[in-house]
């Protein structure tokens, strides 16, 4: 385990693979990530870059044919990667909760919404499902902005997309977790409902004081909601900094490429795309996985992957264009 950088979560050299008929998919390639209590961290990047796999690793939900090959996930003083499933159950849903990308897929289709929330509360608080638990169900539905009398007896297929996501938020926050992971919570919703869900999440997080990891491919959503941002590419963390620094002074060529592709009000120049395609993670490029698409690629980029180093205060980049002295120190 490397040095502890955050007082809530520290991920070090995390490698995850998936065994498929095509070969071994190297999904995560030594991910480094950390955060403090009460922070809001956005993880951004293209589809397939490893954002959701990182979240599932934290939750201990990597199942066959997937496997965590190496690395550590330290949550507070608990090393999650060395825990048995029976121990993880006491953390999952209680101290770490997750809002999944497809709420209707995450809800049980044959159980009423109220019972599913009650079941979650009863497990976390070790109480039998009864009047006291249903009082808490009512409270959480009201907090989520839902008509509890109507919603409590509905089945998931009777909910709109926005209602289903509010139910998931109510369920995830019912235990007041230290860390809430929101995996693309607005991707399946229209723009108006997206804004409502983000506003609700913002209000509730301020009220409960939870730390949040927001996984998204939408840079605008991350800019609006997050204190810090981590940019991922092909299973690697390539840049990590405060959100304002990412937008005002991006360093990694991939981060710059993403920002050049973001439309803005009043922008008159042509949007630019990043040349090339996302690499096949069964046979990823050697060295830096971004080098086939990078106009600044050097010989060393094709041979060795650069470590994530601090090039400015609280600004980390994995790129040989910057911080050569810091990279030498990191490798020594």
TrEMBL record:
This is Peptide ABC transporter ATP-binding protein. GO terms for molecular function: ATP binding; ATP hydrolysis activity. It is found in: Cell inner membrane. The keyword DNA-binding does not apply. One of its GO terms (cellular component) is plasma membrane. InterPro entries: AAA+_ATPase (IPR003593), ABC_Ni/Peptide_Import (IPR050388), ABC_transporter-like_ATP-bd (IPR003439), ABC_transporter-like_CS (IPR017871), Oligopep_ABC_C (IPR013563), P-loop_NTPase (IPR027417). It is a peripheral membrane protein. SUPFAM superfamilies: P-loop containing nucleoside triphosphate hydrolases.
């Amino acid at each position: 385990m490397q040095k502890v950088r955050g007082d809530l979560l520290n991920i070090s050299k995390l490698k995850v693979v998936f065994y498929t008929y095509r070969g071994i998919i190297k999904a995560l390639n030594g991910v480094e990530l950390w955060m403090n209590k009460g922070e809001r961290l956005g993880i951004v990047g293209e589809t397939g870059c490893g954002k959701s796999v990182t979240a599932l690793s934290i939750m201990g939900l990597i199942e066959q044919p997937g496997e965590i090959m190496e690395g550590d996930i330290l949550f507070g003083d608990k090393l999650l990667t060395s825990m048995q499933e029976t121990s993880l159950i006491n953390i999952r849903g209680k101290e770490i909760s997750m809002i999944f990308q497809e709420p209707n897929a995450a809800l049980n289709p044959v159980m009423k919404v109220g019972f599913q929330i009650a079941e979650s509360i009863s497990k976390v608080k070790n109480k039998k499902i009864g009047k006291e638990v249903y009082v808490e169900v009512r409270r959480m539905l009201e907090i989520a902005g839902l008509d509890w009398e109507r919603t409590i007896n509905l089945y998931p297929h009777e909910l709109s997309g926005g209602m289903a996501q509010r139910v998931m938020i109510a369920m995830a926050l019912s235990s007041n977790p230290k860390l809430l992971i929101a995996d693309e919570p607005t991707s399946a919703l229209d723009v108006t409902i997206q804004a409502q869900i983000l506003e609700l999440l913002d209000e509730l997080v301020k009220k409960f004081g939870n730390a949040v990891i927001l996984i998204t491919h939408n840079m605008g959503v991350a800019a609006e909601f997050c204190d810090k941002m981590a940019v991922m590419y092909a299973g690697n963390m390539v840049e990590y900094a405060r959100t304002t620094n990412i937008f005002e002074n991006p360093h990694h060529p991939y981060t710059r490429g993403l920002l050049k592709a973001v439309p803005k009000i009043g922008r008159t120049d042509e949007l630019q795309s990043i040349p090339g395609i996302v690499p096949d993670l069964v046979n990823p490029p050697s060295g830096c996985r971004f080098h086939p698409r990078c106009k600044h690629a050097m010989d060393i980029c094709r041979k060795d992957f650069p470590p994530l180093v601090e090039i400015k205060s609280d600004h980390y980049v994995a790129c040989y264009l910057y911080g050569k002295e810091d990279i030498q120190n990191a490798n020594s």
